[in-house]
């Protein structure tokens, strides 16, 4: 998957609505309750999607989706994360050093959204 495809897939999984790409940046509408505010009111114009592949804070927000389910997907996410970053090791201690891009791929694989 390209970086843009990954950003769009993660954003949509997190409730964003993809609308367009401008100058190679994907834009969309934030999920309910996450819109930027102006003068104390939410605005709903198109804004750039979070840069999940380069921003650990954005990935942390996305990962909350995996853990807020009735059946959290921690085991699956951790397994994918170890396989991506450390070539098959199952030692979870390596997962804490994963980059945002590695976390993004593991997130997509966990939700079966990754396309080769």
Structure characterization notes:
The protein has 116 residues and is α+β, with helices and mostly antiparallel strands. The protein has one domain (3-110). 41% of the residues lie in helices and 15% in strands. It contains four helices and five strands; from the N terminus they run H-E-E-E-E-E-H-H-H. It has helices spanning 3-13, 56-67, 74-86, 100-110; strands spanning 17-22, 25-29, 37-38, 41-42, 47-48. A three-stranded antiparallel sheet has the order 1-2-5, with helices on one face. A hairpin with a 2-residue loop joins strand 3 and strand 4 (41-42). Helix 3 crosses helix 4 (100-110). The model has no long low-confidence stretch (mean pLDDT 84).
Q: What's the overall average pLDDT, rounded?
A: 84
Strand content: 5-15%
Order of helix and strand elements from N to C terminus: HEEEEEHHH
Distance between the termini: 6 Å
Q: Which structural class is indicated by helix and strand composition?
A: alpha+beta
What kind of sheet is the major sheet? Answer: 3 strands, antiparallel
Q: Helical content, roughly?
A: 40-55%
The Rg value, from CA coordinates, equals 15 Å
Order of adjacent strands in the largest pleated sheet = 1-2-5
Per DSSP E runs of 2 or more residues, the count of β-strands stands at 5
**Total domain units:** 1
Contiguous low-pLDDT stretches (5 residues minimum) are none
Helical element count?
A: 4
Write down the overall geometry.
globular
Question: In a few lines, what is going on in this structure?
Answer:
With 116 residues, the chain is α+β, with helices and mostly antiparallel strands.
């Amino acid at each position: 998957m390209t970086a843009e495809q990954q950003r769009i897939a993660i954003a949509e999984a997190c409730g964003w609505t993809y609308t367009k790409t401008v100058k190679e940046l994907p834009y969309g509408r934030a999920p309910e309750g996450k819109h930027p505010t102006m003068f104390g009111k939410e605005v709903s114009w198109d804004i750039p999607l979070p840069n999940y592949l380069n921003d650990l804070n954005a990935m942390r927000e996305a990962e909350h989706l995996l853990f807020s389910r009735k059946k959290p997907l921690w085991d699956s996410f951790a397994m994918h994360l170890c396989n991506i970053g450390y070539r098959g090791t199952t030692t979870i201690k390596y997962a804490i050093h994963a980059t945002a891009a590695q976390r993004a791929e593991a997130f997509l694989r966990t939700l079966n959204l990754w396309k080769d």
